[in-house]
Amino acid sequence: MGLIGGLLTLPLAPVRGLAWVFDQVVDEAETQLHDPGRIRAELADAEAALERGEIDEATYEALEQELLDRLRG
Length: 73
Prior knowledge:
The protein is mostly helical. It is built from four helices and no strands.
């Protein structure tokens, strides 16, 4: 992009910057969503909640299935 093109698109710079920030946030969220350590910790939390009686067996099984699917995917 030349000087003229750069000057003409200068007003769009904040939009491009915001799009970059949005992409970074999405990438980090996806990384955390599929992090095996985080998934295992969530699974342990669900199991502990089941043992404390905070959730029932059906809820635990649904959570477990969702977390295992995320771990495999």
